[in-house]
Amino acid sequence: MTCTDITRRTLLGAAAGLAAGRVAPSLAQDNWPSRLVRLISPYGPGGANDISLRILAEQFGHRLNQQFIVENRPGAGTRLANEAAAHAAPDGYTFLYAAAPYATAEALFGKLNYDPRKDLQPVALAVIAPIFLIISAQAPFKDLQEMIAYGKSQKDGLTFASPGAGSQPHLAAELLFRDAGVKGLNIPFRGDSMAYTELLAGRVDGTLTAISTALPYVQSGKFRVLGVASAERSSIYPEAPTLREQGFPSVAAAGWYGFMAPAATPRPIVERMQDEISHALADPDVKQKLVAQGLEVRGSTAAEFGQFIDDETRKWSAVIREAGLKGE
Question: Rounded to an integer, what distance in angstroms lies between the CA atom of residue 73 and that of residue 96?
């Protein structure tokens, strides 16, 4: 067999593969992305997760000259989206824009229809969503210490509004209740607007929420910010002291969003996507748009994001077990 025969046979084989819709792995990776890429959001349209993902998708598409579409898969505490991504083809054309409940789903709900440790691989952390402790300006307490004292004086303790059982605002509140030695009751609502209505009416004592949605109420004098649950003061609203500064060192929590891919996605594609995420997050216009959504730009390597998820899973799983929480 001559070299010409080998070359001809190789080219004919590649052509046949293309005709059948198959591309050699190395060729597919080199040409990525050669078609539309799905980015799965675990929430519905309009929230910080969805909006920030659309901002990043636009940047990816502009740089890579390919369409990146956002597919909203809300429901079941983000499990529907996680499962869809976990079971997607590992070809680099589906990514999950994971949210904080990814790390707590197993502790809350038990056995899942996917393995969060094996079926998806981290690509990069994108942003952090600081959560702020908000009360009504008409509340019978003006600061955190007064709030704790008030809760201890009440038979049923403190009532907190949250976006759902096991959410970061709920878990942060549980940590605060524990460390402050005060009874607390979590009351879940569908969305911030309903929680704010109850807070304004005095039917709940407080909530932990994104500052971007609460800021109009703060500026109008209807709400008061008592602190932020982040490990450090947030650049988005630096005048709010951390709960750590106010005597609760273990109360540190924040929402987060980051990219994950089906576990068998080729490493070169994952690395390319990681580079594109880093580039997008470094863009001044993108940063400005994300900050407007109450988000702090982070970014990371895949290994750093994997360690972050592991740390979050250990921390919050312990809180969930200790508080006896169960998902609904």
Answer: 10
